[in-house]
Amino acid sequence: MTYYSRVIGTGGYLPEKVLTNEEISKTVDTSDSWIYERTGIKSRHIAGADETASSMAEIAARQAIEMAQIDPETIDLIIVATGTPDRVYPSTGCLLQKRLGVKHAVAFDVQAACSGSIFGLSIADQYIKSGAAKTVLVVGSEVCSRIIDWTDRTTCILFGDGAGAILLTASEQQGILSTHIHSDGEYEELLYCPTSTEQQAGYISMRGNEVFKVAVNTLGRIVDETLEANDLNQSHVDWLVPHQANSRIIAATAKKLKLSMDQVIMTLEDQGNTSSASVLLAFNEGVRDGRIQRGQVVLLEAFGAGFTWGSALIKY
Ligand code: COA
After folding, report:
1. Which residues fall within 8 angstroms of residue 224, CB to CB, at 6 or more apart?
2. Residue 52 sits in which domain range?
3. Are residues 34 and 109 in the same domain?
4. Confidence at residue 200, expressed as pLDDT on a 0 to 100 scale
């Protein structure tokens, strides 16, 4: 018997502190209008000094567990996507496992930059479909603010902090219909963050304009690949839940899907790019405010450093 991975819970957490474009304009040479017109971002959340990827992940995960109304002990696998782990090791997955007190789960991290949650969903789906796991928690959690050079106006305007979570369980009912993930390490120099063991400081470095062009083309291709794999067309998709990097990139993907922007879950304006957390934060928002309904088809997609990119088509 092959099982589907069915979504039974979602959660999200955003730190209390909000940093607006106006505030950033006081420290670097930029303006609210430039940032908003080029990116669609107005503000972002910034983690407090005592917050970490695992502390934010815990809050999002507990919300997902509460929604699913399951005993946390039934979780067999915890996957945390993060590019800003608490420590190099133990993994943030292990630290989350400890925080949740889920003794029997296997826990590890996935590092695929902004595509991390989609990679996590893909791994979770393989485990569930193969019968290797029954209930899987996938979390994307990021403190991007700690790997940003706050004097670099080309990157500091873009990113924010937060965590999103999704809980999946094996079901005979449809759930994840397919996932598609890809990588191309050739693009390292366009977007990278050195480790603290390298000579440079550990800040994000990006050639934004070049990243933008590749992202638009690549996300267009992943839409085609996902629909073709399921023998569906654009009209079958009810919602687009995109990675929230730039409103113009998102609009291009929506156009490709022939979706109006009303069918796109947008969190970018108040959250910025929360890297691996962004897709799960947006999915959680759409589920909790009632826009995404049971039985609807939702396309999640992301693109990030590596480059990495991917999609998950979910019948919610
Ligand atoms: N405020 C004002 N001016 C700025 C600025 C800022 N915050 N950041 C850059 N500029 C300037 C540049 O210096 C450049 O000036 P110049 O023409 O005098 O050299 C000009 O604005 C245009 O820069 P450019 O990089 O071409 O702008 P853009 O339209 O490509 O917008 C991004 C920049 C970063 C918003 C956009 O490229 C982007 O979103 N890229 C994709 C990012 C992404 O998806 N990254 C993550 C993948 S997960």
Report:
1. none
2. 4-171
3. yes
4. 62
Could you tell me the CATH number of the domain that includes residue 63?
A: 3.40.47.10
Query: For a substitution probing ligand 1, which of 27, 28, 154 has the most ligand atoms within 8 Å of its CB?
Result: 154
| Angstrom distances, CA of residue 15 to CA of 47, 95, 239, 247, 312 | 5, 19, 26, 22, 27
Q: Domain ends where: 141, 171, 201?
A: 171
Nearest CA to ligand 1 atom 9: 154
Residues with a CB atom less than 6 Å from ligand 1: 30, 34-35, 38-39, 114, 153-154, 157, 206, 208-209, 211-212, 215, 245-246, 249, 273, 303-304
Same domain, 158 and 205: no
Q: How many separate domains does the chain show?
A: 2
How do 161-171 and 135-143 pair as beta strands?
antiparallel
Pocket test for ligand 1, best of 19, 119, 142, 246 (most atoms within 8 A of CB): 246
The domain boundary, picked from 155, 171, 187, lies at 171
Write out pLDDT tens, residues 36-80: 999 999 999 999 999 999 999 999 999 999 999 999 999 999 999
Rounded CA separation 53/74 (Å): 23
Nearest CA owner, ligand 1 atom 43: 245
pTM over 0.90: yes
Sheet strands side by side (includes 176-183): 176-183, 308-315, 297-304, 239-242
